[in-house]
Specification:
Layout: H1 2-15, E1 19-20, E2 30-35, E3 38-46, E4 53-54, E5 62-63, E6 66-67, H2 75-81, E7 83-84, H3 89-93, E8 95-98, E9 101-105, E10 107-109, E11 114-116, E12 118-125, E13 128-129, E14 131-132, E15 138-144, E16 152-159, E17 194-195, E18 198-199, E19 205-206, E20 214-215, E21 218-221, E22 224-230, E23 235-240, E24 246-249, E25 269-271, E26 282-283, E27 288-289, E28 294-301, E29 307-314, E30 317-320, E31 334-335, H4 337-347, H5 352-355, H6 358-365, E32 370-378, H7 385-388, H8 412-418, E33 423-432
Length: 438
Amino acid sequence: MATLVGILVSLFALEVALEIGTQTSESHPSLSWELNGQRQTGSIVIDSNWRWLHDSGTTNCYDGNEWSSDLCPDPEKCSQNCYLEGADYSGTYGISSSGNSLQLGFVTKGSYSTNIGSRVYLLKDENTYATFKLKNKEFTFTADVSNLPCGLNGALYFVAMPADGGKSKYPLAKPGAKYGMGYCDAQCPHDMKFINGEANILDWKPSSNDENAGAGRYGTCCTEMDIWEANSQATAYTVHACSKNARCEGTECGDDDGRYNGICDKDGCDFNSWRWGNKTFFGPNLIVDSSKPVTVVTQFIGDPLTEIRRIYVQGGKVIQNSFTNISGVASVDSITDAFCNENKVATGDTNDFKAKGGMSGFSKALDTEVVLVLSLWDDHTANMLWLDSTYPTDSSALGASRGPCAITSGEPKDVESASANASVKFSDIKFGAIDSTY
């Protein structure tokens, strides 16, 4: 009887699963890359959050930053009534690819809407994300952030999201990886419209300053490795460990005043050359010249993981990472437990990195394969000041200065108006043994 009940529940879940629209065919832009020196034929897919969500006709299930009360009175009926549509990558989202190169545009005025930024994932095949085991490996790519001003972030990073977009584990997530489902990260985002295939409509609150976004009751948490967060003025790479990967609610998400009580280290441990004492290393016409493309090499040393190293290659020259030059922190050029613990003490920041297990905890989290994410975004919460300016803005504490941008910069409405034509380019993605990809 228990087995029969289980079958009936599964059949019901399949019956009410989020459906796939037929008004725009889903054709993934191709993107080749290298694995152990061998060319891989891959492609990219845009996240489900960016897609048109409608009923069996053309009525929106989600319009602006609000759900339709008629089509989505509860999560189950929302899944039953709604269709996730295919994407016009260039026309709607400003995304283009050629060979091993991908460009993400910032503001794209389409036939029916204006799109802001994007988030895409590398696919192994039409229904599966490419996944990576990082320990004792090296990841390399070339970035061009010359067209990204203060307030924008051209990001490339890994998250421990399911390779099939959750389709096999959660029957409601029927569109799966082919339609960009399953996202999670260490910030435990509440703005995901679907988590585990279920509409995140409970307690949904439209954003007060983002006409396209809102937040629901649930967040979705998982380990994150920020390989590259950058604009033309600043860059950082950051480790974020989570004690588990899961849908969360309330305290488990680290919401509100419980930031350090959640399952993920939201602050992470970062290496930002400007923040750690070298203001002449990265930027236009500096040692690593952000006005030109730069090849970025990240090495994951050891299993268990003990160190994450950074190397740059530009103009035919290998450039070692900058060394720290701040009081209380030994002169180092990579992320280790010692570096993270020392900089947390020096800055007075809460050491949630250590609380979540430090490098050992992160190493354990990397036993799970991770998915490659590429994105371009502006920041409706903190104007990207945590990356490229002084944050908190009223602080003179060590480590508060993170880049040269003004504390008044990065306001999304200003960036979207003044820098609509901004873009980021990623190319030459390579993965393999240490010192083999550059």
